[in-house]
Amino acid sequence: MTPYKIISPTASEVPIIVSVPHCGVLFPDEIKAQYHSSLIESPDDTDWFVHQLYDFVSSMGMTMIHAVYSRWVIDLNRDPKSKPLYNDGRIITALCPTTNFIGNPLYTDERKEVDSAEVERRLKVYYNPYHEKIQELLQVKQKKFGKALLWDCHSIREYVLTIQKEKFPDLILGDVDGTSADSKLIDRTLEALNGSRYTVNHNHPFKGGYITRHFGKPAQNIHALQLEMTKVNYMDDAEKKYDEQRASQMRTLLMKTFQSLIDQLKL
């Protein structure tokens, strides 16, 4: 199975790619039995329903790519050489995690790491195709429009004590301290987000994962932004079910934000 799905534009095309790397919930047959079945029935570290939340983007002319497999197979937003993205003491799961975010072992043999040969296999089979497809999509957009923007979508629980003790804000825009996108695109995004009822942080505590850091090359007219949001903004209070009313309100803000970015990209 191809480790990603593509949703093509249904309206006039615009130079924006939307990536959802952590919404996958499947486990390949060749390794599925190695995991605790009780955990993979509902992989808790999933960015639940994010591809559903953003399913309007095709009607605005954007292309979406989203993951099929769980981040517990391989994390598509980690450095392929397992270089840590942060060094402030927070828990950082590996490229091929062996525990979930709260430290529970994922594998029945409670291994401490996935061996290097298996990591390389997963890179080749599951990780590289996703990143190669993003690169291809961005190059096509840049060739057609002279520029391209990658928007990387994420969600997180309100509280993850292994990362920070405080509740996360509603929305966190990451642009790697202003280096992954043109300042005008960043300003447009912040203006739209800050004009809402939601609490918004900029580059704290997340400034962008590997996807944003790797693909954002504003000097080459390829820009990348990451948006993290707490799950209660589109799910119920238990962070278990999709909430249509909350999701509708968030989608309204996202559509407004994207329209502002589309307008800026036309200049």
From TrEMBL:
Against Gene3D superfamilies, the record matches this protein to: Zn-dependent exopeptidases (3.40.630.40)
Q: What is this protein called?
A: N-formylglutamate deformylase
At the highest ranks, the source species' classification is: Bacteria, Pseudomonadati, Bacteroidota, Cytophagia, Cytophagales
Domain of life, per the record? Bacteria
